[in-house]
Amino acid sequence: EVDYALCCFASDSYINDENIKINTVKEKDEIQCVDIDKNTTYKSKVENIVSVDHVNLIKISTPTKSLTLTKDHPLNIKGYGFISLTRLSKKLNTDIDDLSKESVFILTWDSKSKSLKYERLSMLESLKGKQKTYSIRKISNGSDYIVNGFVTRTY
After folding, report:
1. Beta partners for 50?
2. Phi and psi at residue 88, in whole multiples of 5°?
3. pLDDT digits (tens, 9 = 90+) for 17-42
4. How far is residue 48's CA from residue 82's CA, in Å, rounded to a whole number?
């Protein structure tokens, strides 16, 4: 379940292994998507992308990846499926800023081994100020795609 209609990533986020900045993606562009059940990637065309100004984003990190996003953008969390960090913190009865102290594992794409793996959330930092954000709302085939190596979903 998604908390808000616009869940987004910061403009410096990259789509897939090809280092395409999200702020350059346009409708009809092909992006790398992921089939979680088959542990494979495929190409799909962007059908809808939106941009919104957000405040109070968060930066999350695992040992090998980092991403700046809204607190309400769902990621695939081990044991919970796609869930926002806001909703996860409520389920774990902890403050969102303390999630990195919990055993939270996020589904990622390892571009070297070309496979999915869970990585432990090692840092969560609250950011202040207004930032331009982007979200891919619809793709032509499937719903899961990769941003900065993290598996996410269209909403």
Report:
1. 135
2. -65, -45
3. 667 999 999 999 999 999 999 999 99
4. 20
